[in-house]
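Interim report, section 4.2 (structural modelling).
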Amino acid sequence: MNFKCDHCGKPATVHLTEIEGGAKIEKHLCESCAQSEGITIKADVPISQLLENFILQSGSTTPEPTCEICGMTLSEFRRGGLLGCPNDYETFSHVLVNLLERTHEGASQHVGKVPVRAGLDQQRATALLRLRAQLKAAVAQEDYERAAAIRDEIKEMGAS
Amino acid sequence: MTLSDLTAQAGEWLRGAGPMHDVVISSRVRLARNVAGMPFLSKCTAAQQRDLEQRLAGTILDAGLADGTFYVDMAAASETDRRLLVERHLVSRQHAEASHPRGVAVAGDETMAIMVNEEDHLRMQVLRSGLQLDNAAAEINRIDDRLEGQMDFAFDGRYGYLTACPTNVGTGLRVSVMLHLPALKMTGEIEKALRAARDMHLAIRGLYGEGTEASGDFFQVSNQTTLGKSEAQIIEEFVHQTVPHFIEYERRARRGLLENRPAMLEDKVFRSLALLRSARCISSDETMYLLSLVRLGINLGRINDVDLTAVNELFLLTQPAHLQKILRHEMQPQERSEARAEYIRQHLGGN
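Predicted structure of the assembly:
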């Protein structure tokens, strides 16, 4: 049976049956009308393709989000598909949440294992990351005095 | 223990002895972890990559995770050795082909392998033969706990274990089984089965993992969702929902072939064995194809004079890097085809 879209008359590819107050309502829509009604179509595509689509999406007009610690930009992430440091999850959280939900069956909250040791609290981990980025910059600028000072600071924090 | 000691035998997980081995070749679980306070690999300087590798290799070896664990410096290993590790499923192709400081720690019995500086700082895997995911999951958790006692991993309350690629974040857990599905392939029902798997958010790959085509009769099926489910839930769904479907489909297809087309089935199976016993030149692809049918013939009780373990081992030992290691010299493809055919004839009682 070939249905036409209830709205625009194009061939319908989305078929919905809803029960409202005991009455059955059938809807037949084309993909674009379905989307404008806010109906999401479960994509039958592998993760790699989702990621690719995500990466190819055009960027926004606001200044490009950039990680202040590792220097990763949103477009660099979109091109390569890999993040630069743990802080990127924070920096790009506004776009990542959407990507995570699409790749993880709608989830964006971890419910699994938690490290046995209390370990590094997050603030300290971020501080270490930041110091290592500063060390990298100091070495690149051949500012060895500063590099030595930062290295000492990293040592003091108990990480080699 | 070194790499050369491994060559002449098949890894534990390829012996073909585990539960459900008529369909499930092997089970694998892996965890992705990164060291807290360090950038991911792509933003590490060369010096940081070297430091990380040294530190992680040292920690892994000191932790005494498994008997006979040894470390292979991938940047210093020969091309044949790196390919050998890929053929044994101990490292990914990407890890073998990269050029930055990196390596892999391998347990003496090869049931554990930990890649250092792959896409994440650590990629740890546990392998078992047949369907033994519960057992493998318990083991990887033990290894993770041991390493976590020595270092801090990047972790976030909301996103869980943080990974370079957001598709691994959360548990960092990838569960997979290698399936042998020759009957589904023969009856053409394989497409339907694979479509159903994709609908269940599963990834289907070839024999050598990511980036390899699901060709021949072997399929690697793995979970894609790593966030929003606990490790136990991911394993449970896999063991009790995903894998039983495949086993049931494949066994049903095999019974169908036996009942409806026994002559066709026997013809294919015995021709394959005869070819392997007689060929004088044979490619790696053709070997895989024929061995797959012989394996089916043994599992269906049609072939009785060939040992299943011998066939399972041949899958591995006839691969290019293995053949060159066993015969102790580098060979061009034509020479390899001849050597492979001879090696197979020797091991299958050929003429």
